Amino acid sequence: MQTRAAILGQAPVQPPFADTRPLSIETVDLAPPGPGEVLVRIQAAGLCHSDLSVIDGARPRPTPMVLGHEATGTVEALGEGVADLARGDRVVLVFVPSCGHCPACATGRPALCEPGGAANGAGTLLSNQRRLSRRGQPLHHHLGVSAFADYAVVARNSLVPLRADLPPAIAALFGCAVLTGVGAAINTAGIRPGQSAAVVGLGGVGLSALLGALACGAHPVLALDVNDDKLRLARELGATHTINAADPQAAEQARELTGGGVDHALEMAGAVPALELAWRITRRGGTTTTAGLAHPQRTLALSPVQLVAEERTLKGSYIGGCIPVRDVPRYVALYQAGRLPVDRLLSSTGPLEDINAAFDALAQGRTVRHVVLM
Asked: pTM to 2 decimals?
């Protein structure tokens, strides 16, 4: 079959993207699903910094590639061996397909699936196959999803059934922003009621982490960013204090507000200075958790003496340490109960044709989450 898709021909591409147009909307060929695969009609797909970092070269990926990894849709066709889904089922797409039997999956850490990670790096599906092509030449898949398209073939292991009746623009957020941010607070950091927390970087993932910390019962909860509009939204969502991270005294303000630093600092900006700030505002014996993906060539300098003498912990978090089949339904239920108002993260929606300009808005910090509606 054929489908519209947004293709990244090469990277890096510099902004303004409305002029340089890194993504071209083209009609491409999509092969039927193979064994263990599913054809999904995409309904909505969110723009994430992980997509942007492929465009600007911060996260090198093979090109040409159909981008997009945070999405929801409906099942259209099933490949051989897929018996637990039916045509018309609604699903959330997850950007690491877990094989279920590698050492990481066997120990309950599907976010670290070894075959899934290898396939994502190679631009293939979990089967090591590519189902997308253009004029007879293969196109790479983005994180096993390639959601900036009307249709996608994905591994069954990339899908979580969506039982709730959510608007597609909201449901899409559970595929990345909510899993990554809320999961980092709940699963990776393990925030307990009454502990203090701070979130550095208030994009879609960072504000989700803020909501996760509040859902854990953290208090006080600080929010730090360089964008005053995002700080204002953080206050509306429940942050007890907000600090502009560009202020030279930001770390001192945070430490003064919390009597020496927070129990948990979560860095979600994907920049080394943000992670350094998160480390500086963590108290003795506290934990700094990062889900930000800085440029792979950047490094972080830490004092081993401080790490040891203060019994500090630095933790990485990928997909929020989630088990998607467990956590997506849980987080959806919390949203429906009013405990995770993730709908507040939705800044705007638009058609696929406007995607380049939408990435400009994301790069400039003018949106939290823009969702493409198919």
From this structure: 0.97
